[in-house]
Write a structure and sequence with these properties.
By secondary structure, this protein is α/β, with parallel strands linked by helices. It has 22 helices and 17 strands.
Amino acid sequence: MTTARRVRGDGVDLAVFEQGDRSRPTVLLMHGYPDTHAVWDEVAARLAARYHVVRYDVRGAGASSRPFGRRRYTFAYLMADLRAVLDATSPDRPVHLVGHDWGSIQAWEAVCTMPERFASFTSMSGPCLDHVAHWTRGKLSRPTPRNLRLAAGQGLRSWYIAFFQTPVVPEVMWRAGLTRLFTRALEIGEGVGPRAGHPARTFARDAAAGVGLYRGDMPQRLRRPRDRRTDVPTQVIVATRDLFVSPHLVGGLQDRVPHLSLRTIAAGHWLPRSHPGVVAQWITEHVTAVSGGPLTAPEERAVRRARVRRDRRPFDGSLVVVTGAGSGIGRATALAFAEKGADVVAADLDPATARRTAELIGPRGHAVQVDVADPVAMEDFAKSVLHEHGVPDVVVNNAGIGMAGAFLDHSVEDWRRVLDVNLWGVVHGSRLFGARMAEQGQGGHIVNTASAAAFTPSRTLPAYATSKAAVLMLSECLRAELAGKGIGVSAICPGIVNTNITRTSRFVGQSAEEQGRKQERAARAYARRNFGPEGVAKQIVAAVQKNRALVPVTPEARLSYLTSRISPRVMRLLARLDVG
């Protein structure tokens, strides 16, 4: 239930709305422009079961007063309003402050000037104006191409700020019908359709009055920035698809905010509407961590991953699942991610080798036995990972088997076995974990181990090459589908790598003795090549960090890929060679 009351600010009446038990910690949600408190409806409903949730319409918006003149929208008045709300709703305890857009800009001013009133701060799509000015000056003072590009990028995002300095025209346009265009753009660009309360019925008046926010302190702060710092534990949620705020603005922020956490999400500007579940969850985790409350293992890992430290490793707090992790590329990949700070679930058909990989990792390694070819076993595996560890950040579908020989010597069962492991194992892992990544809404990455055989036809590898070509195409299709959800997909295509797959591959149509000789001959050839699985693991980690679509790993793999693109005919001729 939401209760409403009026609180007297600095010369204005503020409409204040409260939910939840007042004896519990207070979370204050501040809205941006041209919104009202109602932009937080979905988030507030999720938080009210655990917290005393407070919202208010800032001056010029919704049911609050609309003073005239730019001076009435400067930080001095805005901070006086905020103090009045704090005194009325939580006079004796610091509150957990959350701000979006202009609400976040105001909140930055508050945590830097009256930090004693706040237990924590979560910022979304609204940076500190002083920090922006310092950031911009820093880029322009070192005019490298990259710095100029970043500064220009934020400048283009901020075009409307200059327009709002124009007298009268913005107000007239808002009242003349620009609100309908804005509502439509919000629906198309962010997937946020109109609903009761947002946009508000007072939208045109709110937008016209709120222009004063941009004419108050903003020009002065951007021209003459102050040295704003805060010790309040701060969480910044970075929307990577924000059309108005560059993700790069957080650069150097840790120098001014020592207790800083960063979380990124593939989303647009209006996060409280487009991703309310994620926003509420991250606010809860931040508040709980700051308060010293209990966190589940996935929550603790998420908080650790978000925390900014000088010694932070790239995958600190991340959960990585690797199949085929008992040896070769799988084990090397599991160890590589662990070295970068990740918790790793090492899965393999052989439980002893999976346990050994987990032992090499240490306390952050977890061994699981699973047959990737068994859909029921994979369902159970995914459920156990999700229950015990949470949704993984990275899934490496690496398990695979080798098979060589003439097409006419392959039986139906041979084909079924290769496809069940090499293709269906990837399908199962991608489907089961990808669905939960998408549902969670926090992005992630899927890595599928294909092979240079995916683009290198060979008369001696019909089943194996077909399975790996299918993995490559599956990866390309998945990448296109999941990009909109912030989930990257990479296909890794190693060439000749010295692993034990040569000793376990089947050579069909051969006697046991001949098969043993071929396995030994292949093992010696791969050993002479002397490219170890650690080199592939390094490329897998880099592919995740840089979101690469296709990674031919070894020199021969890169040459084969290039040749397949430039001259497929040459590859067809080479395919006729019997390299067995």
